[in-house]
Amino acid sequence: MGFSKAIRSLVAVASLVAMSASAGEGQNWLFRMRGISVMPDESASINGIGGDVDVNDDYTVDVDLTYFLNESWAIELMAATTRNAVRAEGTAVGDVDLGSIRLLPPTLTLQYHMCLTETVKPYVGAGVNYTKFYDEELSDNAVISRVEYDDAFALVLQAGVDFDLNENWVFNVDVKKVFLETDVNIDNALGARIDADVDIDHWILGVGFGYRF
User: Fold this and answer.
1) Which domain range does residue 196 map to?
2) Are 127 and 153 within 8 A, CB to CB?
3) Which has the closest alpha carbon to 50: 92, 110, 86, 20?
4) Which residues of the chain fall below pLDDT 70?
5) 1, 41, 83, 116: which one has the fewest Cβ atoms less than 10 Å from its Cβ?
6) pLDDT for the residue 92
């Protein structure tokens, strides 16, 4: 219920800002590419066997396209993909290697930009993430026969800063917190199913460059 209210509020604010965008100076696009570190802050409730989950960090490249509605308000769409190794730890049957999974988490945020100086421009944002889990790879063990992750929406908070290098190029530092929850179904080799509620709640730290046009 709280998540639904947050999404409705975000849509309402974006609509109001978009209606006032005609008072701005016109369209202003910013394309960025960053090297990012994706660091899960994970926890889990595993039915039947207890324990917790460990999801490893991953490093990749993201791209985003930002549209400035006016000098202060902007909408950013970010995309990247990661592969993360997953383990169940401290369960009643010991540690279990669950293989790896790819995540495709496009993220849409509404941002408020400020001008600290003429060249230093911090921003904050909030929005929604949709994470698609795909390309599962099981480990070479005889314990697990299938692992299935449910795709999920998540709330996102964001902060960052653009450093203008010249009229077009910027250097960017960006931090996002994604509050992601997913249901995981695990089938063992004997056909029994184990269900788990997993909170991934990852941090995304990015550094890169952008081009205004």
Assistant:
1) 2-18+27-212
2) no
3) 92
4) 1-27, 142
5) 1
6) 85
Q: Are strands 203-212 and 29-39 parallel, antiparallel or unpaired?
A: antiparallel
Rounded distance between C-alpha atoms, residue 105 and residue 78, angstroms: 8
pLDDT of residue 139: 82
The CATH number for 58's domain is 2.40.160.20
Give the global pTM: 0.82
Which residue in 95, 122, 128 sits closest to 109, CA to CA?
128
Cα separation, 39 vs 108, in Å, equals 19
CA dihedral 96, 101, 107, 112 (to 10 degrees): 50
Which backbone phi and psi does 81 adopt, to 5 degrees?
Answer: -140, 145
The pLDDT of residue 12 is 52
